[in-house]
Amino acid sequence: MGDEVAVRDEQLMRRIAKILEEARASHATHNRKVKELSALRSHPNFFASFSRTLVPLFSFQQRNSSAERIVRFVAAFTCAPAPKASSGCDNAFLEKFLGFLLVAASASNKTVRFRACQIISEIILRLPDDAEVDNQVWDEVIEGMILKVKDKAAVVRMFAIRALSRFVNDSENTDILDLFLEVLPLEPNAEVRKTLVLSLPPSNATSQAIIDCTLDVSDSVRKASYCVLANKFPLQSLSIKHRTIILRRGLADRSVAVAKECLKLMRDEWLLKSCKGDPMELLKYLDVETYEPVGESVMEALLKDGFVKIREDESIQHYIGSHSDKTEAGELSAGTQNIRLMEAEAALYWRVVCRHLQTEAHEKGSEAAATMGTEAAVYAAKASDDNDLLERILPATIFDYICLVKVHMDAGPNYRFASRQLLLVGTSLDFSDATNRKVARAFVRELLQKPLEHELDDGGNMVAIGDGINLGGDREWATAVTGLARKVHSGAGEFEEVFSQALEELAQPCRERAADFLQWMHCLALTSLLLENSKSFRWLQGQAIEPEEILRSLLLPGAKHVHLDVQRVSVRCLGLFGLVERKPSEDLVKQLRLSFIKGPPPISREACRALVDLMMWHGPQEIDRALGNDHSTQFGNQRVDSLPTNGSDMEESVNTDVLDLLCGGFDRDDWVKVVSDENESICAVLAEGFAKILLLRDKYPSISKDSQASVLRRLICLYFSNETKDLPRLRQCLSVFFEHYPSLSVHNKEVLCKVFIPVMRSMWPGIDNNTGNSPSLVSNMRKRAVQASRYMLQMMQAPMYPKVTETQDGNLSSAEATNDLAQSNLEHGEEGLAIRTAAEVARFPGKKTAAERSYISALCRVLVLLNLGSSDQEAVKLLRSLLNHALVIVAAEKDLVKDMKQFSERLKALDRHPDRELLQEQADVIFERLGVDFKLDVNNFIAVPQTPVPCSTRVTRTRRRVRRESSLSDDEFSPNTVAPSIPTTVGARSQRASKTAALSKMTAKKDIRIYEEEGEESSDLTSEEDSDEDAS
What we know:
single chain, mainly alpha, two-stranded antiparallel sheet, two-stranded antiparallel ribbon, about 0% strand
C-alpha cells in the first residue's frame, strides 16, 4: 500500500515537473498550463508534491528569462480559481503555499530568500481584490516582508518592498509607509531605491521624499521619480515651489533620458491634461514673477520641441488698440490709442517667443549662407518664415512699442515685471531707421533719468525702494535698460556718449552739494552702469564728463557722504573705476583702505570686495606701488592682530601691504559674525578672494610661498571654525577650493604640507595660548582639529591632475625627471609631512600637560596613516630617528605604540642601507629644506622601547610568603622545610620534581591571594580594636 502511494506521488511530481518545464519555454502557454496544473489539485498529496518540485527553483541564482517565466507561472497558478469553485481562488492551497514561502524567506541562503520574496511579491500583486484570505495569514506575510525590507541582500529587500507596495495605501498599515520613508534616504542600492520610489503612494507625506529623489545619483532613480510624479501627482496637488523645483531640476538634468521624462511630464500631464495645451495657463501655475528662470526654461523647452503653436489672432499688436476712448476694463489711454495691460505670464511668453524666433532666423540664415542648392533654399525659406512671424508679433512701429512700455511703467509696481519683459522685447526690434532711432534715443534717455522710487517711513523720512545700488532699484531692470540702450546706440562710442550726457546732468546738483541722498544714489547707480559696460576710459575722453571728474567730483566725495547707502554705492563704484583704470590711482586706493578699516560692516564689505578685485586684476604690487610701497609682498608668518581704527594709525598703515591688510580681516571676530544685508560676511568675501588668488598663484609671482602658506592656514581654520557653520555659501566655496587646490600642482601640495603643523597648533586647545572655557568646548575644539587633520591628509593624498603630470614629465628627460622628483618629493610629498609631524612630536620630551598629551596623540595617529615611498634614503633614516623619540614620548598609550611600531617596520623595510648611519649635517640640511626649526642630535641614539612584559613577582611572592609563614602555626610548616641553597652545578630536574614545584607555586599564589583578601577585610573591621589594644 505504501509503495503504491509512493509511486502515485512520483508520477504526480513528474507530471508537475513536465508542466513547469513546458511553461518555462514560453509565456504563451501559461494559460493552458495553468488549467492543466489546476486539474491536478484534487490529488491528496498535491501540495507536498508541488512544493518538492519547486525546490530546485529556490537554489537557482541566475535571473534569466526562463526562471522569471516559471516564477510568473507559479504566481498565476496560485492565484487561479480552483476547478470546482465558482469564484475566488483556492484559499486553502494559497494559505499553505504562503506559509511555505514565509519559511523559505527566513532561510540563511540568500538565493532561497530571494526566490521566496519574489514569488510572494508576484502572488500579492496578482491576487484579485475580492480574494478571501485569512487575516492572520496576511498579518504573517506583512510582518515577514517588513523584516525582509532590512535584509542584507539588496535583491531580497527589493522584492520585499514590492510585496508590501500593495498594502502601503491601507489605513491600517501606516507603519509600512513610515518604514518606506525611513529606509529611502538610507538605502545604498539604486534598484532598491527605485522600487521604493515606485511603491510610494501619492500623499503630502511622500511628495517631498519623491521630489528629493530627483537629486539621486542614479539616473534610473531620478527617472522613476519623474514617472511617479507624472502618474500619481496632478499639477494642482503640488505647491508652486514643488512645481518649479521639479521643472528646474528635470529640464537641466545631465541625463538625456531623465530630461526627456521630465519633458514628458510637463507636456503630457501638465500642459495637455491640466492646462488644455495653453502655455500661458501653465506659466500661471509657476509664478513666473518669482521663478522667472524656470518659466523661461519651460518656454524654451516647449519651443524647441515644437509644442507652442502661435495662432493668427495672437501677437503683441493685439494689446494695442486703435480706438480713441476707453472701451473695457483693463485698458488705459495712451495718446490716441488704447492699450491693454499685459499680465506677467503673457509678457514672459512673448519675450521668450520673440527671442527664440530671432535666434532661429539668424541660425537658419547663417546655415543658408554656408550651404548651396536646395539645402540653402530650405534654410532660407525657414529663416524668412521666422522673420515674417516675428514681424507679425512685434508692434508695428517703434512709437507703438514705446507707448506700450510707458503704459505698463505708469501702471504701478504690479506691472513692473511686465515692463521689464517688454524692455527686453525691444532688443528684437529694428532700429536701423533714423526716425525710429531718434524716438528710441529719447526714450532711453528718459529711462536713464527716471528718479529712484521711494517711500516714507513712520518718521516721515524717505526710504529708497530696491537694492539702492542698481538703476531702477534692481539688477534685472538695469540689465534690461542696458540691453535696450546697447541695441539703440550700437555705433562705436554712442553708448558712452549718451550715458555721459545723462550722467553730467545728474551730477550737477551733486557737485554743487545740493542733492539729497536719493539723487546721489541715482547718479552713482548710473555711474556704476557706465563703468560696468566700459572696457576702457578711451571712449570716455572728451565726453560731457570725463573719468577724472567722475572720480574727483562724485566717487571720492560720495565715499565720505554722511548717508551709509551713498557710501556703499560710492565704494562699489570706486572698485569698478579701479578695474577700468590702467593703473590704480593713489587717492582711490587710500579711500578703499580707509573704508575697509574704519567703515561699518556693509561699507567694509564693499571695500573688501573692491580691494580683492583690484588685487586680482592689477596684482598686489601695483596696489602697493599706488601708495609708494615699491617692494615685494613678503609678509611671511607675520600676523595682523588688529586693524587700525584712528587717524594716526591710518597714517602708519599706509606702509602695510594690501595682502597684510586684508589678512588682518580674518582676525576680526566681529567680521566673521556680522552678516550684511546680502547674507554674506566680510570674512566670506575675503575667503572667496584669497581662494581665487591661491588657485591662480602663477599670475601673482610677487606673493611668496610663506605668504601663500599663511593665507591657506587662515582659510583652513576658517572652514573648520564653529563661527562659520551658519554661512553655507562660504563653506561651499571653500569646499570646492580645497577639492581642487592640492591637485593642481606640486607647489600647492608643498604649501599644504607647510601649513599642517601651524593649523594644528592654532586649532588645538591648550597649544599656542588657544584655551577653551569649558570641558565640552575643549572637546568640540579637539574634534574639529582632528577633522581638520584628516581633511588635510586627504588633500595631501589626492592624486595630481593628469595635465600637471604630463607637463612635468614632458619638460624633463626620464633620468632628470626621476632625480628631480625624488629631490622635490621631500617638500611636497608625504615624507616631508611625516618629518614635520614627527619633529613636532619630538618637541615634547619632558613632562606634558593633558592638552599636550592629546595633541601628541592626534599627531601620531595622523603620522601612521601616511603612505611613504623610498625616494630619499636620508629622509627615511631621519624619520626613523625621529620616530624613536616619538615612541619614547607616547610609550604610555599601548594601542598607539602598536600602530607606531607597525609604521616603524614599514620604515625599516624602506631603508635600503640600514648599516649606514645618518650624519648630523644631513639631518640639518633636511630640516633646513623643510623650514623646520628643530635640532636633532643624531649621535644620541634612543633605542625603540620593547613591548612591555609582565614584571617578575618572585621577590614579592617570597616576601609575602615569609609574612604568611610567620602568621601561620608551626605545625603546618616546620623549620626543616627551608629551601636548600642552589648548588654551583645545576642538574637536570626530574619530571616529578618539576610537577611538584609547579603545584607548590600554584598553591602559593592561591594562598597569597586569600591572605591578601582576608588581610584587607580584617584591617577595615578591626581598626578600632587594634587602636584600643595599642592604647592599653
